[in-house]
C-alpha cells in the first residue's frame, strides 16, 4: 500500500484527491487540516470514512506536525489560504498562514522520510505577466513570474505561492525528497464553497429579482475553467510520473471562454430569461488567462476529459439542489459569498 499524506485534506482539491485515491485503491490515506467543515460527510460514506486517518490541527503551529507519521511515500501539500477575496480582506493573514505552512512543512520534511511532495501552486503567479508584458496566451510554465503591484493586497497570495515553489523545489534535493509543482488553473466543481465565480453566480441568479438586469462584471475577461476531476487527475499524474521530479506543470483546461459566456451559460441553466448589463471588473483582476498544456500532455499523458460546459452543468445542478433543499452555506462550514471577487 502506498502511504499518502494530504496536507490541506479538508480543502476542495485535497478532499477530491482523497476521493480519487480511495476509488483507485492501493493507498493508505491520511488527511491533515485545521478543519473539515462537514466535507467528509459530503464526499465519503461511513465505511469510506473509516478507511481514512483524519488529523485535525493548526499546521501553522510546528507542534501539530508531531501528530504525523514519520514515513509517507507521497505528500500532497495543498494547505493554504486561497481566494482573491481573502487577499483583499486579510492580506496579512494570507502572508502569515501560507508562509508558516510552507516553512513548518519543510522543517518537518527534513526530519521525516518522504518519497515525493507535490506542492499546490497557482496561475496567479503569472497572471500579471500576461497583463503587463507580451507573454504568450496560452501560457507555458517557462513564462517569468510577476507581481503586478506590490501595494495591491490581491498579490499577497501569488507572493506566497512563488515562495513555496522555490522553497520546495530547492529544499527537496538537500533534504532527500523529490518535489513537483502543479499550478492550478481555475479548478471548480460541486461543493467548492461560495467564494468562487461559478457557485457565486448560481447564488446570484437564485436570489436575483426577475425585473432587474443581471450584471456581468468584467464581461470581456477570459478564463479557462478546469473541472475538479481533471485537476485531480493531473495532480496524481504529477505525483506518480517518475520523470516529473523537480518539474512544474500547468494543470488545467485550455478551453478559454469569456466571463460573459460563463455568466450567460449559468443564467441559461438557472432558467433566467431577463436582461443583462455590463459592469466594471473588480480592481486588480487580470484580462486574460489560459494555460499552455503542452508539457503536461507530453510528459504526464494528461488530457482534460470534462468540457467546460459539462463541468458547469454538473456544478450548477449540485448548487441548485443545495439551495432547493433549503440548505445554507454555513450548514457545511462554507463562508458566505459577500464581497466576492472574480479571479
From TrEMBL:
Q: Where is the NAD-dependent epimerase/dehydratase domain?
A: 4-252
Looking up InterPro entries in the UniProt record yields: Epimerase_deHydtase (IPR001509), Lipid_A_modif_metabolic_enz (IPR050177), NAD(P)-bd_dom_sf (IPR036291)
State what protein this is by name. UDP-glucose 4-epimerase
What organism does this protein naturally occur in? Halorhodospira halochloris
Q: What taxonomic lineage is listed for the species of origin? A: Bacteria, Pseudomonadati, Pseudomonadota, Gammaproteobacteria, Chromatiales
Amino acid at each position: 500500500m502506498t502511504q499518502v499524506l494530504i496536507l490541506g485534506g479538508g480543502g476542495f482539491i485535497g478532499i477530491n484527491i482523497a476521493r480519487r485515491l480511495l476509488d483507485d485503491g492501493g493507498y493508505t490515506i491520511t488527511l491533515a487540516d485545521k478543519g473539515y467543515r462537514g466535507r467528509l460527510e459530503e464526499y465519503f460514506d461511513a465505511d469510506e470514512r473509516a478507511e481514512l486517518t483524519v488529523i485535525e490541527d493548526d499546521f501553522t503551529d510546528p507542534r501539530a506536525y508531531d501528530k504525523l507519521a514519520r514515513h509517507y511515500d507521497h505528500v500532497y501539500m495543498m494547505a493554504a489560504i486561497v481566494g482573491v477575496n481573502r487577499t483583499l480582506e486579510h492580506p496579512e493573514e494570507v502572508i502569515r498562514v501560507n508562509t508558516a505552512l510552507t516553512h513548518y512543512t519543510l522543517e518537518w520534511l527534513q526530519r521525516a522520510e518522504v518519497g515525493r511532495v507535490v506542492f499546490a501552486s497557482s496561475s496567479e503567479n503569472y497572471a500579471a505577466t500576461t497583463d503587463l508584458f507580451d507573454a504568450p496566451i496560452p501560457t507555458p510554465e517557462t513564462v517569468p513570474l510577476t507581481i503586478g503591484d506590490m501595494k495591491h493586497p490581491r498579490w499577497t497570495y501569488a507572493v506566497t505561492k512563488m515562495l513555496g515553489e522555490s522553497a520546495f523545489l530547492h529544499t527537496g534535493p538537500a533534504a532527500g525528497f523529490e518535489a513537483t509543482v502543479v499550478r492550478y488553473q481555475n479548478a471548480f466543481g460541486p461543493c467548492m464553497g461560495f467564494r468562487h465565480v461559478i457557485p457565486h453566480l448560481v447564488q446570484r441568479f437564485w436570489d436575483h429579482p426577475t425585473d432587474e438586469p443581471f450584471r456581468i462584471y468584467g464581461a470581456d475577461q477570459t478564463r479557462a475553467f478546469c473541472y475538479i476531476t481533471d485537476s485531480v487527475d493531473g495532480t496524481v499524474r504529477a505525483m506518480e510520473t517518475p520523470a516529473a521530479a523537480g518539474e512544474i506543470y500547468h494543470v488545467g483546461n485550455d478551453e478559454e471562454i469569456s466571463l460573459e459566456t460563463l455568466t450567460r451559460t449559468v443564467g441559461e441553466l438557472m432558467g433566467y430569461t431577463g436582461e443583462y448589463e455590463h459592469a466594471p471588473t473588480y480592481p486588480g483582476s487580470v484580462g486574460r488567462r489560459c494555460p499552455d498544456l503542452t508539457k503536461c500532455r507530453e510528459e504526464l499523458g494528461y488530457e482534460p476529459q470534462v468540457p467546460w460546459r459539462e463541468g458547469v452543468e454538473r456544478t450548477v445542478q449540485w448548487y441548485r439542489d443545495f439551495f432547493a433543499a433549503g440548505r445554507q452555506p454555513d450548514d457545511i462550514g462554507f463562508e458566505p459569498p459577500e464581497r466576492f471577487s472574480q479571479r
